Amino acid sequence: MSKITEFEQKVYDYIKSxxxxxxxxxxxxxxxxxxxLKNAGLVKTFKKPTTPWAxxxxxxxxxxxxxxx
Length: 69
Hints:
Elements: H1 6-16, E1 21-22, H2 34-39, E2 43-49, E3 57-63
Antiparallel strand pairs: 1-3, 2-3
């Protein structure tokens, strides 16, 4: 991979263990690593409604490489 820190690698592995993950469900200490992983091209963030009738969209994060679980 690219040059990422050991902690960013832990965050990446945590996100990779899920298919897609709501950012608010990630531990708050890990939030700061998401922009670095996004700039490195390892994850993407996107917004979508959590329920069909919700008007507000929530931010999700997903690895660009699909997990093999």
